[in-house]
Amino acid sequence: MKKILIAYDGSDNGRKALLKGKEIAEKFLSDVMILYVVDDQLSRMYSHTQKLPNTDTILQKIGEQMLQDCLDYFKGYQGNVYPITKTGNPAAVIIETAEEKNVDLIFIGSRGLSRVQKILMGSVSNKVANYSNKSVVIVK
User: Fold this and answer.
1) Backbone torsions φ then ψ of 109, nearest 5 degrees
2) Is the pTM of this model over 0.70?
3) Residue 47 scores a pLDDT above 60
4) What share of the chain has pLDDT > 90, as a percent?
5) How far apart are CA 5 and CA 81, in angstroms?
């Protein structure tokens, strides 16, 4: 287990995935990539208006701050930790990043969507688990 990707979204389950990913990484002294994806759906929805500031920039800064907070969990960790912020469709970006970085394992939190939301939209964690060719751990 040389490389681990932890997809972090700021949720409680995302934090649990972060901690579980760290636990496994410590056992193998893995390189850890912590990924925050700025969902570009918001900026696409509001791109027609001049009233809102650049949504991507604001969300990017929020993501960068979240990743800095994540790094606090890794203080004293003996391996390498790389914070990554990207913009796009979260599931697609997570899958692409896992491929690009050739990770061995992806950790992602379960979002706990309602049954109706799952039927209509599907969850990011389910999409990653179903479409990635990497092993995926969904943490609740």
Assistant:
1) -80, 145
2) yes
3) no
4) 64
5) 10
